[in-house]
Amino acid sequence: MFTYEKLIEIKQLIKEKENILILAHQNPDGDAIGSSLGLYHFLHKIGVQSTIIVPNEFPKFLKWMPDAKNIIIGEYRTKFVDIAFKNADLIFCLDFNTSTRINQLETKLNESKAIKILIDHHQNPDCFDYVYSDTSQPATCQMIYKFIETLGEVSKIDVNIATCLYTGILTDTGSFRFKNTTSETHKIIASLIDKGAQPNIISSNIFDCNTPERLKLLGTVLDSIELIQDKNTAILYITKNQLLEFSYQKGDTEGFVNYGLSIIGIKFVAFFMEDIQNDFVKISFRSKGEFDVNKFSRKYFSGGGHINAAGGRSELSLMDTISRFKNIIKTEVNEIS
Questions:
Q1: pLDDT attached to residue 334
Q2: Which helix H or strand E contains 309, and what residues bound it?
Q3: pTM for the complete prediction?
């Protein structure tokens, strides 16, 4: 957490600055949108206006969240974004550790004269003016709660803030299943419920939103499963043509990689997906136990993330990428257990 001195400085900055931006990463997920909206509503509650900008579109299953309609999609409103960055005097950077994670907004952020505050739980953060980085935290939304708490403003958390923060913690902990879900997490969740978050409604909005096309897409991905038994590893994949066949929408493959981890004995899963618009392969890695997919992804697939959840990419074809992955697993990874 920020030192007491830094926290006092930040409280003063929030009061003084008139043009505050909140940024989240490319392909924003529940934690990115939840933390951004949670902070947005908190700032509004204390009389401070702000603007949320994300690089590109976010999934439909997150659009029900309070004031999600006010989020600016950078790729759609380029002129507005240019002016917003030019005028910004304070920028909160949420749920990303490096400016490369915000894609086309990277140059604008790096060139901005605004004071930059990072709140994030990914490893190896870049340098910002103020940094609250804690890789032990399961979600940036949990960090936003602790930030508000440390400011002495928990009483300001209302149903909108609670709903947004609950959503991000729910999604980034895999419904509280992942290893870094702690007793502190559950205490914060309890507090958010007391503040008005409704678990049944939030879970229904997130998980009960399947279309027939998405379920058929899931069936296709599950049909692709290949096991490397002696390495406790599962591989899943989907092609661009298959995505198009089932009318793919952003967020449709969210959580598919976790089905591999549900297989008895599997400790490491890789999900490969051809990008619809660009000529590369997106990769999601998940693991159980001590196998560090963050290090694995950084070393071999230009990615990163957390110990048990990371992403990467490959410029090779889908099948060549999978072949390279298999070769790495068989020749360079000693044990996954």
A1: 72
A2: strand 309-314
A3: 0.92
